[in-house]
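Practice set, problem 2.
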Amino acid sequence: LFTSIPAELSRNSKRYQVGSVIENATASRLGELLMDMADSMTVNFSYHANDPSVGFSLHADYDCFKLFLADTGLFVTLAFMDRDYTENVIYQKLLSDKLAVDLGYVYENAIAQMLKSAGNELFYYTFQEEIVKDEDGNKTIRNYEVDFLLSRKDKICPIEVKSSGYKSHKSLDVFQEKFSSRILQRYLLYTKDVRKDKDIFCLPAYMTGLF
């Protein structure tokens, strides 16, 4: 379960698939083992908020979660443990700010670590929307995910994590359409400088610890 954390994050699925790691296993059956992992303080759990409103823990699905490592350096080592450190391109890319888009889960783990270190519990939200695809009225289902949710005052703050640009933030936009009355402020955390895109605060990842 522990060594599969990077692989499960890279799948970009809406949850940690316990059954894909241990055959026929479910989160509810492994509850005690998962709690032991949490108690070890080497991992951070992010639970699905079934109702994105203040009091996430009241509406969380504790069988639907993502797992992050509490130390992003260890996460990178674990993700590429089959390669020699000196030949590992990811370290060079991290240092030169050229991390590929498909490695965005490294940033997501770093954000999770910083949010947790700042005293926040981790929650996220996934949802679907029907989209009219063509003139004949054919529809398609599109999946969206808000990477992290914070509770502030009597409102919530959705956060999207980007490893590259800021111009595309569809999940934040659709979330705003659905839950505008619940939102205090929207944030996008990325690798560039502080800026504002309409009402979205775009902040460099290193400022996460200030939340």
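Problem 2, part (b): a different protein.
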Amino acid sequence: MVRTCLSYLSGFDPSLFHDDDGRKWLVNMKWDNRIGKNRFAGHLLQEYDIKNKCLVGPVVNIFKGTELGCSEGTHLYKRNGYYYLMAAEGGTSYSHAVTLARSRSITGPYEVHPQNPILTSKGSDKDQFLQKSGHASIIEGINKEWFMVHLCARPIPKTDRCILGRETAIQKVQWREDDWLYLVDSPGKLPSWEVEIYSEPESQCTKAIRVKTEQYDDFDNNFMDINFQSLRIPAQMFMSLTERPGFLRLYGKESLGSKYTQSLIARRQQSFSYCSETCLQFEPKTSQQLAGLVCYYNTENYYYLRVSYDEELGGKCIGILASINNDLSEAMIADDNILINEADRIYLKVEVHYCELRFFYAIKKDDWKQIGKVYDASTLSDDAIEGSSAFTGAFVGIACQDLSGMNKHVDFDYFSYVERE
């Protein structure tokens, strides 16, 4: 008996299949890193020994994909004597698709669905609100109804930019007499915007719309709100909720362009239109010390309303840094910094409405003044990022930098995020 570790099945998106005879199988895509080869080189299958907790037996490439290319994200199912292989193909962008194939034997050969792909937004016009549809799995619900959940993205209307990143949608599907799976609520292969789901005592209709999201954190607890995320390193390495009760203290670390140690806490943007606000107390002593409110995609794409120090102006100031694919020309120049020496508490706010991003500040609460110009929020989108695959969407949060290495801290009194109609 040949035993191997899980790393033998090189690639990503592994899935475990439980057969009705009690045997278990691991299926995973094969990644071929050789020059001139198809990097998406098929779907590998190997048996898993649950007692010994290892893979055993031969590795078989059971499906090499279709002409759609980029075959990945494998799932196996069994129904009416057929093994069904569901895969993501076409890449994760606007050619994304769901491929279905079947075989009487788990090791194949697999025949492809006669109308493949069974789900895709490719080729649809921009009125099709759910784009980039693919990478699916299926489940049987109540009343013997079947559903498919899949990845998708919603571009800002009249653009191809998806500022919300990858999202998840649901479709109703059915098995027909030919033992193939088809969409129910949408003609052809396009995902539907509305899906009818059986429920007691009457049928309801669900839409691909979220509940309005609000978050207000006054930092009175000794734990972080579940919506917050840190970047690359644990938040405990640069923050404290106990050193000054009722405040979140961040210690300044490296610049927003750093790929190592950053002091940044942020949450996902989940709506095309939202408002986010914070209040800070910060006494920088050098221009190398900054803190504020940030709209962030990655180290090369962000808009940053920050408090810092300007030696020429003679004190504490407020201004905006902006980076678009590492181009800093959108940033406010030094002459546009606003001196705020008299300010103890500084209120910062951002309003985003589709492509428009506006910053505001206040020395007295609710006495808001706009600062900077109207920025293009769509640059913080998957599709505006250069040089790599991107699908995380935009974030909004708070940050602190101290490039002098003196570990200067800032105290934030609260953070709010409210979605708007």
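Answer key, part (b): The longest strand covers residues 409-419. The chain has two domains: 3-207, 214-419.
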